[in-house]
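User: Show me a protein chain along with its predicted structure.
Assistant: Here is one chain, sequence first, then structure tokens.
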Amino acid sequence: MTKSLKMMMDTRISRAKQLVKLLERLTKQEHLYTAEKIIEMKAQLRVVKQEIADLEAKTSKGFGKK
């Protein structure tokens, strides 16, 4: 993987982590949103967390990786 591609992946991961933090803060304030919006935000939160896990697994350089 080239250095610029690695930096681009790191940027995507950091932006996704910022999105996770924002969604978590918003879902804690349930009194501001309808039940439908809360369900939608929680679904988006699950999707973003899964994408972060996939990206980190793809770019990790741990033991046993080739």
